[in-house]
Automatic annotation (TrEMBL):
This is Alpha-glucan water dikinase phosphohistidine-like domain-containing protein. GO terms for molecular function: ATP binding; kinase activity; metal ion binding. It holds the Pfam family GWD1_pHisD. It comes from Effrenium voratum. Keywords: ATP-binding, Kinase, Magnesium, Metal-binding, Nucleotide-binding, Transferase. Its cofactor is Mg(2+). Gene3D superfamilies: ATP-grasp fold, A domain.
């Protein structure tokens, strides 16, 4: 979960292939061929997709030079068409920590170079969607699920059930669709107090906010999310949907397991997890790459 605030080149030992490339890493140099991952491994594919150089050093003198002369220094790495890698000392591109942070979050070296020449807009704020519920219902049952309402896990389960023999059971399920968090925030139970506090808290975020500043803001946001009250309409919608699913299947397994307090606590934990450092860095990275900082829409968990 290490996040680098400046563009970083990592000299690595063994890479199994299951690792994630840390945010902020622009290149991974593996010490020797026997420590390198397969080209089709998870790590290699993610590196290619995110524009991160992943190279193996076959010449031990190169890694020895890096460790002896270049560790902790600004460097330039060049990988030529014949597969050879050259690494040499370079000048620090800039001193502005905000612009360096944006460069580290860029998903490609081309964008990193482009960001070097741009002026940082330190006053532009992030606009998170906390009110638009997309006209969603509180709860949807499996036959009404589609990719515009729920995530792939819920949808795949809903699509699988009709294809199975009747004696093969699947878990009973209902889902709170995309927009349900915003619907809860704008409900009469929460709009007056908690929505306004959450908006004021998140208004402090900027595209160039440091990870430490963002972490502090999100900790406050999580307090507000965990203080939300369960809308009575949501409770009734959940019970009705579970009743409907159980009646169709002849067994109210899901409804018998439902407990309002436990369900609401679990829902708030999912929503609160959206306001965390890793989701923020991932979204910030996407916004840097697309140039779209205006509409940062918060995703919704499913029940």
């Amino acid at each position: 979960d290490k996040i680098f605030e400046t563009p970083t080149i990592m000299l690595s030992g063994l890479v199994s292939g299951e690792e994630e490339v840390p945010v902020g890493v622009q290149a991974v140099l593996v010490r020797d061929a026997k420590s390198a991952p397969d080209i089709l491994s998870h790590c290699a594919v993610r590196a290619r997709n995110s524009g991160v150089l992943l190279a193996s050093c076959y010449d031990s003198t190169l890694t020895e030079k890096i460790e002896a002369e270049l560790l902790g220094q600004w460097v330039q790495v060049v990988c030529s068409a014949d597969g050879s890698v050259e690494i040499k000392a370079a000048e620090r591109p800039m001193a502005d920590p905000k612009r360096m942070r944006m460069m580290a979050r860029s998903a490609s070296r081309d964008l990193t170079q482009e960001l070097m020449s741009k002026e940082t807009d330190s006053t532009k704020l992030v606009n998170m969607n906390l009110k638009e519920d997309f006209g969603c219902k509180w709860v949807v049952t499996p036959e009404k699920m589609d990719k515009s309402k729920v995530g792939s896990k819920s949808l795949n389960l809903a699509l699988l059930k009709p294809q199975l023999p009747k004696d093969i059971l699947t878990p009973q399920a209902v889902a709170m669709p995309y927009g349900s968090m915003q619907k809860a925030l704008t409900s009469r139970e929460n709009a007056k107090e908690w929505l306004s506090k959450l908006e004021a808290c998140l208004a402090q975020l900027q595209p160039t906010s440091s990870n430490e500043d963002a972490k502090t803001i999100f900790q406050e946001a999580q307090v507000y999310v965990n203080a939300l009250q369960m809308p009575s309409e949501l409770d009734q919608a959940l019970r009705s949907a579970m009743e409907e699913v159980g009646s169709k299947e002849g067994e109210k397994r899901l409804l018998n397991l439902y407990h309002r307090g436990d369900a609401w606590d679990a829902t708030k934990q999912v929503w609160a997890s959206l306001f965390g450092l890793r989701p923020w860095v991932s979204l910030a990275k996407a916004m840097v790459n697309s140039g779209l900082w205006d509409e940062l829409s918060t995703g919704i968990g499913e029940l």
